[in-house]
Amino acid sequence: MSYMLEGRTGSWEIVVGLEVHAQVISKAKLFSGAATAFGAEPNSQVSFVDAAFPGMLPVINRECVAQAVRTGLGLAAEINLESRFDRKNYFYADLPAGYQISQYQMPVVGRGSIEIVLEDGSTRHIGVTRLHLEQDAGKSFHDRDPVLSYIDLNRSGVALMEIVSEPDIRSPEEAGAYLRKLRSILRYLGTCDGNMDEGSMRADVNVSVRKTGEPFRTRCEVKNVNSIRFVMHAIEAEARRQIDVWEEGGEVEQETRLYDPGRGITRSMRSKEHAHDYRYFPDPDLLPLVLDPAWVEELRSALPELPDAKRARFIREYAIPAYDAGVLTVDQAVADYFETIAKGRDARLASNWVTGNLFAAMNETGRSIENPPVSAAHLGQLLDLIADGTINGRIAKDVFEAMVETGDAPAAIVESRGLRQVTDTGAIDTAIAQVLAANADKVAEYKSGKDKLFGFFIGQAMKATGGKANPAAVNEALRRALS
Amino acid sequence: MTLCDLSLAEARDGLRRRDFTSTDITTDCLDAIAALNPKLNAFVTVTAERALEQAAQADRRLAAGETAPLLGVPLAIKDLFCTEGVRTTAGSRILGPFVPPYESTVTANLLRDGAVFLGKTNMDEFAMGSSNMTSAYGPVVNPWTRHGDNAQLVPGGSSGGSSAAVAARLAPGATATDTGGSIRQPASFCGIAGIKPTYGRCSRWGIVAFASSLDQAGPMGRTVRDCAIMLASMAGHDPKDSTSADIPVPDFEAACGRGVKGLRIGVPREYRSDGMSPEIEAMWQHGLAWLREQGATLVDVSLPHTKYALATYYIVAPAEASSNLARYDGVRFGLRQDGSDLQELYENTRAAGFGAEVRRRVLIGTYVLSAGYYDAYYLRAQKLRALILRDFTEAFEKVDALVTPTAPTAAFAMGEKMDDPVTMYLNDVFTVPANMAGIPGLSVPAGLDSAGLPLGLQVLGKPFDEETVFAVGAAIERAAAFATLPSLRAGVAL
Amino acid sequence: MALDPATVRRIAKLARIRVTDEEVTRLQTELSGILGWIEQLNEVDVSGVAPLAGVSHQRLPMREDVVNDGGKADAILANAPARVDHFFTVPKVVE
Ligand SMILES: [Mg+2]
Ligand SMILES: [Zn+2]
User: Fold this and answer.
1) pLDDT tens, residue by residue, B297-350
2) What is the residue-averaged pLDDT of chain B?
3) Does B17 touch chain A (CB under 8 A)?
4) Which domain holds residue B169?
5) Which residues of B are the active-site residues?
6) What is the mean pLDDT of residues A82-110?
C-alpha cells in the first residue's frame, strides 16, 4: 500500500529526491595537500590553495578520483572515462574563491541504482542520477559573537561526492531506507565514513507533493539535513506545509529551506533569498579528467563484496532468514563478526546470538562492533559449549553476561562458577524426587488429568539444579517418575 | 657609460668574468631607478635593500667560483608575480596591502638561477589594459617621445612598467605576462624585445590570475638573446600548475644563432587590414625582405577566423576574469570596505577596490556567463576559439613561423584612445590570436615611424617551438640593427 | 545588444560590485558598446564545431594522496583585514 498524506481535498502523494554530500575518505584535500581530519584547530588544515590566495592553483588528488570511481562501481553506475570540472560561482563567506570547483555538465559517474528493502520485506530500486566530485566549503560560526560570524576554512577544499537520486522516493520510510543503504555501501567501500554527526554525510532533500496521476508539482529543497531521522521528519513536515499551501489555493514557490528539528518545521533560508545564477563554466585551471580504462578495471577488481551480494550469499550459504541476513549485512564489521562465528557452527543460532544478545550488549555498553563487548572468538566458544552439551541455552545467557562483564573466555567462566550442565541422571532423579515430594497435591492434580502441570514440575526441577540440568534429561526423568 | 647600458647577456658574461660585481651593476640600476622612476613611474615598489643583499650574496658565490645562469643579474619583476615578503599589488587598490607569504614559481626559478630583484613594476590593473592607464598606482610614462613633441606617451600594457624599465635601462631584463598581448604590445611601444611563450611553458603558480586559459609569463629584454636567456630560467614543468607542460626546456640562447636559411615564413593575408597605416605596412615589408635575404621563403597563408579573435577574446577573458577575481572580497586579504552586512561589505569592497576597466570586464564576464546568455556568448566564443586554433594548426602545416606587425600603431599619447573601451581593445588585434591558440609570439623592434617612435614585428611559432621563433626574431633584429635610444634613459642627464 | 538599467544592476549585484545611478547610465552605454561590437561573431557559422575551453596539450596530472601542506594558520591569517584569534571574521550572516 503506497504512502499517502491526507489533506482536506483528498490524499496526496509525496515525491522525494535526495542529494547526498558524502565526504570522501582521503588523507589530503581534493585539490591541495592540506589534511582532512575532523576537529582540528581553526584554519590549521588550510593551504593557500584552500584559502584562494592570489595565483594559487588546484591539482587533483588521485585517491579522491579513485574513491569516486569505486563508489560509482559500488552503485552499479556508468563510469565516465572523460569528465570535467566546472566552476560554480557564488559569493559566500566560507567559499574563499567565490566559486566551488564541481562537476556540472560531465560528472565522473553517471546512472546507477540502489535497492532498498522496506519493513514489510518488499524491495524497490531507487535510481541514482549521477555522482560528481566537488569541493566542500569552509565553516561559518554564527553563535560566537553578537555581530560577527567566524570563518574556519579547515573543511574548505575537502573532497565531496555529491550523489543525486532520481525523484523516485515516495515516503519517509523509503528515504530512510535509501540513506541507510547508501551509507552501508559507502562504508563497505571505505569511500565515506557516513558519519552524519560530524557532517561527513549530509542530505539535501527535494520534496514536492501531487495528487495521484498528476505530473510533478513545484519542489522545494531542504538543505543540509544531518540525520536520517531528521530527513524523514523534514520530508513529512515539508510535504504537510506544501499540502496546506496548495489546499489554501496558494502556490508553492521553488525555494531553499532549512529544517528546524526543535520545532519540527521547515523555514525559508534567508541567505538564499536572492535568485541564484551560478554561471557554471569549465574551470580553466584544470583539464578534462581522462580515466585509463585499465585503472578503472583495477579498481573494480579490488572492490569488496557489497551488502546486496553478501546478503544473498548469507541466505544461500547459511540458510538464515532474509530479514536476519539483511540485518547482518548492513555493516561489514557485523557481517564479518557473524561469519567468524557461523563458520562450522549452527548458523541460525549464530545469527540469533548476534542480532539478539550481542546487539543488546552493544546497546547497553555503548560499544561498537569494532570494539565489541564480547569478541567473536569468545562468542564462538560459547556456541561450542552449548553444542557439545557443556552448558544449556539458559546458562549460556548467564555465561554471556559474565563474558560482557569480565571479558573472560566462556570455558573459564563455566568452570570457575560451576555452571556445567548436569547430565548425571542420579542427581537429576534426586532433584525430581524432592520436587515431587514437596508438591504432593500438584502430583495428584497432574495424575487426575491436569497435564499442564508438567511444565511446572520441569521448572521446579531446573530450579533445584541451579538451572544447570540438561533440559532433555530432566524431561525424560520426570516422565519416568510421573508415569 | 654606466653598467645599466649592458644587455643582459653582456651583464651576465661580465659578472662571470668578474669585470664588475653584482653589487656594482645593482647599484647602478638602483641609482638609475632613483633618478628616473619619479618621472617614469615604472616601479610600484623598489626593493633596494633586498636587491643589495641578493647582490652581495651573488658576489660571494661568484667569488667562490660558482656558476648559475643568472648569477648576480638584476631584474625587474612585474607586480603580478607574487613575491614572498614583498608587497604584490597587481596594479590594483584591492590588493594594496597584500604581502604574499609565497614566491611564484617563475620568480622562484629566477632566484634559483641567481637573479637579483630590483623591485616590482607597474602595470595595468590585473593586467587589463593596453596603456598602463588603468593602474591604481598611476600611469607609466614611455621613455620615448615623438620628434618635436613633449607629449607623454603610454608604454603600452599591461606590462608597461616592465617595458619602460627595460627601455630606459633601469634593468637589463624584466618579467612580464601576456594574456592578449601584454608582453608584445608594450615591447613594441618601447622599442624592446619580449616573448610570450607557448601556453604551459611557464608555470602560472603564484601569478595573480587574469584569464587562466590565456595567461602566460614571459621575459622582456633589449635583445632577443636576452629574452632567450631569461626564458630558459623562467620556463619548466611545475607540478603545482595542472596546465604546465611536462616538456624539456631547450637551449633557447643557442637557437638565436640558427639563422633562417630554409625556413618557410608565413605571411597571413588577413593581417593586412584596410586600415593598416602605411608606415606599419612598410616596416612589415622590410622585415619580410630581410628574412628573404637571409634565405627564408615567404609563403602567403590564410587565417580566416583571426579577425574574430579579438571579439572572441572579449568574451573568454572577461568570463574567466569575473570568476578569478571573485576572491577579492575583503575577507582574507587585501582591501576591505565595511558594510552593514556581508553583501554590502562585498559590494563596497569591490566597488572601491577595482578600477573602472576591471569593473567593466568583470561585469561583461558576469553577463556572458549568466543564465540565458552562456550559449550565445561563452559557448559561441569557445567554438570560435576552436576555429582560430584550427587556422593556425593548418597554417603551421605549411610554414615554420608567421611574421606580422605587433601592433597597429606606435605608442600613443596619454589620454588618447580613452573615449570608448573598444578603441583601446583594438590595440591587441594582432597579438590576441596567439593567446587564443596558445602559440608562442615574440615582438622585436624593427624600425621607427616618422615621428621617431619604435615599431615592432611579431614572430609567431608552433606550440613549443620557441626555438624557431627566437631564430627568426634574431634574424630580424640583426637586419634591423635597431640602435636608436629613448630620450629618457639611465645615465642621461634629465 | 543594448543593456537596460535593470540588467546592469542585476549583473552588478551578481558580481557584488556596488554601482551608483550615474554609473549605471555610463555602464549601460559602455557595456552595450562592447556587446554590440562582439555581435560580429554571429556572422560565423559555428555549427558542428566542438567548443574549446583551453589549449593545454597535457593530460590532467594527479597528485598523490599525501598531506604536505597546512599547519600555518598564522600565515593564512597574516593578511586578514579582520580576525579574532585564528578565525577570519565578517559581519554576522543570518542563514
Ligand atoms: Mg544541492
Ligand atoms: Zn554539491
Assistant:
1) 999 999 999 999 999 999 999 999 999 999 999 999 999 999 999 999 999 999
2) 96
3) no
4) 3-266+396-490
5) 78, 158, 182
6) 97
Set of chain A residues whose Cβ sits within 8 Å of the Cβ of C16: 91
Q: Which domains does chain C have, with CATH numbers?
A: 5-42 (1.10.20)
What is the CATH classification number for the domain harbouring B424? 3.90.1300.10
Per residue in B390-446, pLDDT (tens digit) is 999 999 999 999 999 999 999 999 988 887 888 889 889 999 999 999 999 999 999
Q: Report ipTM for this prediction.
A: 0.97
When the pLDDT of each residue in chain A is averaged and rounded to a whole number, the result is 94
The answer to whether residue B494 scores a pLDDT higher than 70 is no
Query: What separation in Å is there between the alpha carbon of B279 and the centre of ligand 2?
Result: 57
User: How far apart, in whole angstroms, are the C-alpha atoms of residue A340 and residue A350?
Assistant: 10
Residue B463 falls inside a structural domain: yes
**Is the bond preceding residue B104 a cis peptide, omega within 30 degrees?**
no
Please give the tally of structural domains in chain B.
1
User: Does residue B325 lie in a domain region?
Assistant: no
Which of residues 323 through 362 in chain B touch C, CB cutoff 8 A? 326, 329-336, 338-348, 350-351, 354, 359-360, 362
**In-domain check, residue B14:** yes
Query: Searching chain B, which residue's CA lies closest to the CA of residue C14?
Result: B366
d(CA A204, ligand 2 centre) in Å: 9
Distance A162 CA to ligand 1 centre (A): 8
Distance from the alpha carbon of residue A17 to the mean position of ligand 2, in angstroms:
14
Query: Taking an 8 Å Cβ-Cβ cutoff, which residues of chain A contact chain B?
Result: 48, 51-60, 87, 89, 91, 93, 96-99, 149, 151, 277, 279-281, 284-287
Closest CA to A85 of A102, A110, A67, A66: A102
The environment of the single-atom ion ligand 2, i.e. residues with CB closer than 5 A, is A 162
Which of 3.40.50.2300, 2.60.120.280, 3.40.50.300, 1.10.10.410 would CATH assign to domain A425-482?
1.10.10.410
Q: Which ligand has its closest atom nearest to the C-alpha of A203?
A: 1
Number of H helices, E strands in chain A: 16, 17
Strands of A395-483, DSSP E: none
Nearest to A257, CA basis, from A244, A271, A240, A243: A271
Per domain, the residue ranges of chain A are: 4-299, 303-416, 425-482
- What is the 3 state secondary structure string of A38-98? CCCCCCCCCCCCCCCCCCCCCCEEHHHHHHHHHHHHHCCCCECCEECCEEEECCCCCCCCC
